[in-house]
Design goal:
This protein is an alpha/beta fold and 375 residues long. It contains twelve helices and eleven strands.
Length: 375
């Protein structure tokens, strides 16, 4: 029997899928409260993921359903540079980690795997991350991969060892993220835990695309091209920032003179995530076209935003994670889901090839620990 996982702050199930792709993990309970993410999750997997992990009812449900590994991509907005950076002071989102910690204490899984934005390790001068590590190591008694102890018994770690970038895992996206993996010290003991590698994988051998040019689907529909007025606004904004000595502003990621281009981080907030990933895709019949949803005609420079499909490929949902035994890609969104939601859900999710590599690393640790699933 495979190891049983629970999928908290599940989104559209990217972490779950990465673990399931190894063939050694099966999900038993999910928790997600976003209405539209739940629609997609139910469409992709069996069962209804709607559960509130902060509720006593859900925590009791976990007590009655044994599992092995806790997975959670807990809310990142409060720790993100793009957000307010309120961290644990955000009553609604920062507190989610406290509920995850409570669930760990109540259910004592063999292992946990957490994902968040890269800025988590630097937030509040590193104090937020220090709090998380201390909670896991000291309060919950878990061995966190990447944490050592000096001769005085003090925790030592390099925050960079918790950050991994999607561009090193087979997809052309510059997406640094924080990953935390830990194992139950009470279950395994320090001697056994001392035998597993104390450093997370830094990449894999997957090469889905040579670069961004191999991923893009050129000659996109007219609706993806920017209006001339909006593009002009972006150009003026970038020029103003340049005059201030800043590098802010839109970016065309696949200009012909760019060798082996990669995308910038795609973001759930949409706007800047799209504008930092504009595509040069000239084709006849686009310039000057009127689109009802745009205030001015389409631009004459061949500039467009990336499509939801291209974002899905950047995250490994499309052309990777859902390909069946016949080589047919089975990924789809539920009928009627808006494009705004499609962008948001991909931008909010994880890069599945990274997660699969992390899951393989966890399996290797279990093997060294002499663990058998579902004892």
């Amino acid at each position: 029997m495979p190891f049983r996982t629970i999928d908290l702050c599940a989104g559209i199930g990217g972490i779950r899928k990465g673990f399931e792709l190894t063939g050694e993990f099966v999900n038993v309970i999910s928790a997600e409260i976003d209405k539209y993410a739940c629609m997609t999750y139910s469409h992709l997997y069996s069962g209804d993921p709607y559960n509130d992990l902060t509720s006593d009812e859900f925590k009791q449900k976990l007590r009655n359903n044994p599992y092995d590994v806790l997975l959670a991509g807990f809310p990142c907005q409060t720790f993100s540079r793009a957000g307010l950076e309120e961290g644990f002071n955000d009553e609604e989102k920062g507190i989610i980690f406290d509920h995850i910690a409570e669930i760990i204490e109540l259910t004592k899984p063999r292992s946990i795997f957490l994902e968040n934005v890269d800025n988590l390790v630097r937030h509040d001068d590193g104090n937020t991350f220090k709090t998380i590590i201390s909670r896991l190591e000291n309060t919950l008694n878990y061995k966190v991969i990447g944490v050592d102890y000096n001769e005085n018994g003090e925790q030592t770690y390099n925050w960079k060892s918790f950050i991994r970038n999607s561009k090193n895992f087979g997809v052309p996206q510059n997406r640094p993220r924080t990953y935390i993996m830990a194992f139950d010290r009470q279950r395994y003991g320090n001697e056994l835990l001392g035998r597993i590698a104390n450093r997370l994988p830094e990449g894999n051998d997957l090469n889905l695309y040579e670069d961004l040019n191999g991923l893009l689907e050129l000659h996109a529909e007219p609706k993806y091209y920017m209006s001339s007025g909006y593009l002009e606004t972006l150009e003026k904004h970038k020029e103003r920032e340049k005059n201030k000595g800043n590098g802010f502003g839109y970016k065309i990621v696949n200009m012909p003179q760019t060798p082996h281009p990669i995308a910038n981080t795609i973001m759930a907030t949409g706007g800047s995530g799209k504008e930092r990933n504009l595509v040069f895709d000239p084709q006849e019949g686009i310039a000057g076209t009127d689109i009802p949803t745009k205030k001015t005609p389409l631009n004459d420079k061949g500039i467009r935003v990336m499509t939801p499909r291209e974002w899905g490929k950047l995250q490994g949902f499309i052309n990777y994670a859902f390909i069946d035994e016949n080589g047919i890609d089975q990924f789809s969104f539920p009928p009627g889901l808006s494009q705004a939601q499609q962008y948001k859900q991909f931008g909010n999710s994880v890069t599945i090839p990274v997660i699969k590599t992390m899951a393989e690393f966890m399996l290797n640790c279990f093997e060294i620990l002499g663990d058998l699933p579902n004892e």
